[in-house]
Amino acid sequence: MQLSIVAKTIGLLLMVFSFAQVPPLIVDLIYSEGEYLSFIYSFALTVLGGLILWWPFKEIKKDFRLREGVLIVVCFWIVLSLFGTLPFIITDSISSLSFSEAFFESMSGLTTTGATVLNQLDELPKSILFYRQQLQWLGGMGIIVLAVAVLPLLGVGGMELYHAESSGIAKDRLTPKLRNTAIALWKIYVSLTVLCAVGYFLSGMSIFDAVSHSFSTVAIGGFSTHDGSIGYFDSVTIETIAMIFMFLAGINFSLHFVAWNNRSLFDYIKDSEFKTYAMVLICSSIIVITALSLNGEYQSANETVRHSLFQTISIATTTGFTSQNYSSWPAAIPVFLIMMSFIGACVGSTGGGIKVVRILVMFRLGMKEIHKFIRPNAQVSVKLNKSSINEKALVSVLGFFSLYAISFFLILMLLMFAGLDQVTAYSATAATMNNLGPGLGDVAQNYSSVGEAAKWILSFSMLIGRLEVLTIIAIFHKAFWRQ
Amino acid sequence: MKILILGAGQVGSTLARYLCLDDDNDITIVDQKEEMLIPLQRHLDIKTVVGYGAYPSILEKAGIKSMDMVIAVMNSDERNMVACRMAHTLYHVEKKIARIRTTEYLLRPEIFSNDALPIDFLITPENLITDYIQGIVDEPGASQVFDFENGLVQLVETRAFIGTPIVNRPIKELQEHMPDVKIRIVSLYRNERAIPAKSDTVIREGDHVYFLAKKNDISRALKEFRRAENSYQKIFIAGGGSVGLNVAKLLEESHNLRIIELDENRAKYLSEELNNTLVLQGNASDEDLLKEEGIENTDLFLALTDSDEVNVIVSILAKRLGAHKTIALVKRDVYANLAEQSGDVDIIVSPDQITVSGILSHLRKGDFMQVHSLQHGKSEAIEIVVHGNENTSQVVGVCVKDLPLPEGVVVGAIVRDEELLMGSKKLVIESGDHVLMVLIDVGKIHEVEALFLENE
């Protein structure tokens, strides 16, 4: 393990990301709310932090390998979340925010979880609100993907980082050069964001709200600039636009790329994961609509359909916007929705959860076993998009699932030891690991009521979910550190 | 340039590795075996596709529609041919290069045309390696010989030895020592580092010297750097594979040749093919066999088996047993370095570097006649043809010393109407000149390309 190269790269990345303090600064100058010093200080401190890490090792020119790559990715997510707390801490407008709360907020932003500890969002300065939304947007596509797109100097090492950040089942290279792949992904991401912002603006949001919400929608984040989330606007058009873009952002971006290149929607229909993703959303919407109308929660059928659809898409894609306080719906529905967030979005999207393709593969593997049980002589293979999946990929899906399950139970138990009740602990674990956001019980709206220890555990849980478990657990394995 | 490589075998992956060094190349590689692709994907910034390289569906998956060039280096000649046909007919890929090994096909070059088998350039690694080895055998004392202008001019690498006329003297004295010989030192490596070769640079013992000279003058020029070596008489070849056999065929008339082959059937076949060579069936590392056959007065020992390890070990053994000079075929750079350090292997021949050199001239923008890869791909020797007139070209009518060349690029010679012009910096470049240059750093190639490109 060459820690010097790890420090050097993290320093370099940190200096690049210090520029993330500039847009909120501009927002502050536009609305002249006098918050500019917070961002200038944060900018200066981040650059300084980067320099301190980078300067001593700047002469070192070594390529790093897989293990350094993994360590850099994990450390950088943590370090960036740490430096991301600066504006929250420096500003005077948020009173009584502890360090653990600031870290929770920052991590929740970057991992696109969308769980918040802040109250009275509507009263906060616009620059701070914008900064939160921007955190989600930066984290949505993956900060390393962004770094690879803008930093050619990462070179071959960039590949190790890229692989460590996203452990998807099939890492399709869209273009021969990794950098061009990253740029292509960002182009799609930015285009979706722009379209979404325009849509919001045309349906009546202010420019500030439109841009801010487009960030958290396309990143499948769930932060809002209002305590009432999307429900604040109480507009069917806005909810529809949000649903469309949550749905689009939950699709594998490689699929968007291929479809765009071929100018054909047919590519979507051919893809098994997309079909399953769409089916899961449709079926769960129907279930929620039925359950909700049977219970007579809303007077009119229109209202029932509207809120069921919005809440289902928002939670099943792991966004976490709310239009209604869904946690007060009849008991089975909130739990069902939280269960849906385990499936999550497609691999290679900005969403969280286990990812549709893994669930699909496990389902088909189960079917295969049943088939073999009925016809012992049958030769059955597990297929995806009409081609069979090799043994290695199958095992890695199962391995992923087992690690996900183990992490889930560990975090759940830790939270309960930290004093959370069963419903809160269960839903908070799911909401953070699946990068969803709001949970049930005490954390239905806001996480400020849980204890300090629980906040640290939850922050960690968000990171586990965002980096898809393996990367994080790997660095705790002793073989990782062995020379 | 967007390049599609079909086949991730030895040649395919080496090509990918070399081509990756150039940031302007976008490389995609296709192979049937996923395990061949995984290491490439991990270490190189390229796209890999698993599948059968001659199938249209796989080619499309690899993005052949936007490719500028297809290089087919799969195991079978026929597959390569079909893949090139596909690339031409279905996707109109501009340039198609294929490896064809079978002599039967090579004997009928007319089949490689656009209406039959659309292959613009054939790679025949075995032939390239054989030619290369012949070049070294012809010039005792040289460790590498590269042809330009069909052998009119050669670029030779050699090492300077103590006690020879030029060691510890400045380069300009070469001309005084040999007034009738045109020679130009184009690059100099000391302790694996390039140092500029100016007229007052002093040559030290152990320096690796690259110089350009006419073919006829090479042996005279080599005497400046090392003690005279008699031409090789008695030659031993270990390994009777295709390279071994071809080399033996070329050398057997003029040299006293022995070839050792392990496989009995192959040895039998060799004895049928070769007329003037003693074929020995046995292990090339068999000390007794080597001694019995007089290894101690062998002039040259060539280790040409398929295995790097065997070649290195056997060369060292031969040297210890008294062979005067050893040459080993070594694919992997790691072994090449080890073998070089051992001091017992005099010349290391890298088949990959030779094959890649053969392809490189087709990858360059502009009219490149030859491209030779030097120093494991870090440097390059090129021959480029000048086109256009004073208005359309940046180089026509310009004095050699005034050329705006990037640092580390040396003009070695100019060939005009088949005549070698060298030594004068006041030479003015004309259209149709062939300019021979050496680039210490291959990264400068695009600047050179741009300089010599004719503006429409």
Word description of this protein:
- The complex is a heterodimer of chains A (483) and B (456).
- Chain A is an all-alpha fold.
- Chain A folds into 2 domains: 3-249, no CATH class; 387-481, no CATH class.
- Chain A contains 23 helices and 2 strands.
- Chain A has helices at residues 3-17, 22-31, 36-54, 66-84, 86-90, 99-110, 126-140, 143-150, 155-165, 178-202, 207-218, 236-249, 253-262, 266-270, 272-295, 301-316, 332-343, 356-374, 391-417, 422-433, 452-466, 470-475, 478-481, and strands at 383-384, 387-388.
- Chain A has a two-stranded antiparallel ribbon.
- In chain A, a hairpin with a 2-residue loop joins strand 1 and strand 2 (387-388).
- Chain A starts with a helix and ends with a helix.
- Chain B folds into 4 domains: 2-123, Rossmann fold (3-Layer(aba) Sandwich); 141-222, Alpha-Beta Plaits; 234-354, Rossmann fold, CATH 3.40.50; 361-452, Regulator of K+ conductance, C-terminal domain (Alpha-Beta Plaits, 2-Layer Sandwich).
- Chain B has 15 helices and 22 strands.
- In chain B, the strands form 4 sheets. Chain B has a 6-stranded parallel beta sheet, with helices on both faces. In chain B, strands 14-13-12-15-16-17 form a 6-stranded parallel beta sheet, with helices on both faces.
- In chain B, strand 5, helix 5 and strand 6 (121-123) form a beta-alpha-beta unit.
- The interface between A and B is medium-sized, with 13 and 13 residues.
